[in-house]
Amino acid sequence: MKMTDVMREELMILSPESTTKEDILNEMTRRLVETGAVDDYDTFRQAISEREKSMSTGLGDGIAMPHAKNQAVKKTSVVFAKHQTGIDFDSLDGKPARLFFMIAAKDHANETHLTILSNLSKLLMNKDFIEALDAADTPQSVKAIVNLAEAGLEQDQASEQPSTDVQSDQPYLIAVTACPTGIAHTYMAEDALKNKAKEMGIKIKVETNGSDGIKNRLTSEDIKKADGVIVAVGKKVPMSRFNGKRVVERPVAEGINKSEALINEALSGNAPIYRTSGSDKESDSSDHSDQDRSQFSLKSIYNDLMSGVSSMLPFVIAGGIILALSFLLEGFVGSDSPIFIGINEIGGAAFSFLIPVLAGYIAMSIGGKPAMVSGFAGGALAVSANAGFLGGLIAGFLAGYVTLVVIKLLKNMPKNLAGIRTILLYPILTLFTTGILMYFVFGPIFSNINLSMINFLENLGTGNQVLLGALLGGMMAVDMGGPVNKAAYAFSIGIFTDTGDGSLMAAVMVGGMIPPLAIALASIIFKNKFTEVQQQSALTNFILGLSFISEGAIPFAATDPIRVIGSSIIGSAIAGGLTQLWLASVPAPHGGIFTILALGENRLLLIISIIIGTVISALILGVWKKPLEEQIISDTA
Q1: Residue 179 annotated in active site
Q2: Which of 83, 108, 113, 179 is catalytic?
Q3: Catalytic residue at 67?
Q4: What is the largest CA-CA distance in the chain?
Q5: 271-317, pLDDT tens digit by residue?
Q6: Domains of the chain by range and CATH?
Q7: Whether pTM exceeds 0.90
Q8: How would you class 65 by CB atoms within 10 Å of its CB: exposed for 0-12, middle for 13-18, buried for 19 or more?
Q9: Helix crossing, 184-199 with 259-267: angle to 10°?
Q10: Coil vs helix vs strand at 152
């Protein structure tokens, strides 16, 4: 589609009467209505206002690009207006806007809308084009200028070399651009950086995180060989991949208006080195719909599983603590009290989402946002089939890989139909396929497996139950919040949500409490084996351990992994086994000592099992650990 097809002469306003932002938007909208491009002034004008609230479309350098896509548009069009002195438009650079382009796209015409925005953004990066428009005084001259600029743009694009090979003496930059709506600013920043880099003789590759997905994705090889990184964004983008690289992070507006300064800073060697945090990794895993998943590996499966489990945990913790509160209140107000019933239902509401959230985020980790509907629905079908936690896992992986197949099958659709893929074809086809397979195949299969597992657990003899408790307790201490810990925790939650039996929750809870408690106790008993700094920090582990936060032990495990982890596993396994021997139970998935004291069954024996496990771990660690003098000698040898 050429710009002159939508930027028609009857839509041009070369002498607007407006003097304010609201006036110019009103005047341009009226022109759309007068020419029949829009049939409902109020509906379209409201859409324009909503777009301006999210982020001003005053792009800077005297340009504004208001746009909307809704049902009032009957013919996709662009109104062009030119104001001689300029109007205050809340532009990114604070300067008045002179040239206005109002884009009106039909509802569901995603591809057309984005194409116009992208092409117009590229044209507006050409200073000669802007100067020519400033000088134009008739609609015919404006149309001729647009035709000429578009032809030049097509010629430049045809002559571009797709290769990203970098000469040894040529700097190489990579960049990411994104704005909250993923439309105009994203592509204008891209072109500004590319054009300025070309002027400066610098090779650059720019990834755009737009509303049509991630384009020109940066590969691991791109990142490895880059001399600098520019991230010009107005929303979150995956950042952990840049760990260890010098990264310049700026608002997307600076990518447009200060491209040369960003490039110089990125290549100066003075940009800060980016260090990945845990929140980066978690955030990065939530949105990678076009990630290459052609290579299957245990690592990718683990990452998908952890995405689901980590997303489920807030529901577990918040819902579990509120449920625990309701059980505590029950003893005071009675089971018929509206207070108990209301609070219990609030906690239960969070718990009802556990399996759908687990399945939904596993699916999204694999197939991105197109897998969301089928993932959550597959999890809900697992619940209705009584397929339990295992059924939810299968639903998540099934939905994710079904989505990848559907995306692959539809990738060669004609461009004029591509816009309906995300909003129509992906959700319908993935939901139908995943739903049929879950309802008729996997749901019944895993319902039977789940029922058999529950019957097996309910019929375990005391000896076997103790062994299972010891296994789960020990697993909680293996990596203290890592995958083994989460596997044990998720298993016990699955049993708890299916049966209401909190016995295995008791084993898991005490197992997770012991590592930090044992380290804190050992630092008091064996002071000669801990530095003064370690002794001070170890005391906080009493609080963390009592609160069921295993991660407090991680810094100590990192410096002495064999002794710390080994002693923790032994104490946690013993404590976990004791909870089952003494028929202890905790009817809530979190809260540590506070939940145990309020709700635990056989709570005295629960506390004794914690004490025994803690003392055993602390003694083993203290005896096993070298005296501080020997540690220093071995460290310096």
Answers
A1: yes
A2: 179
A3: yes
A4: 92
A5: 898 887 544 444 454 444 444 444 455 656 766 777 787 778 778 77
A6: 3-157 (3.40.930.10), 172-276 (3.40.50.2300), 298-455 (no CATH), 462-636 (no CATH)
A7: no
A8: buried
A9: 60
A10: helix
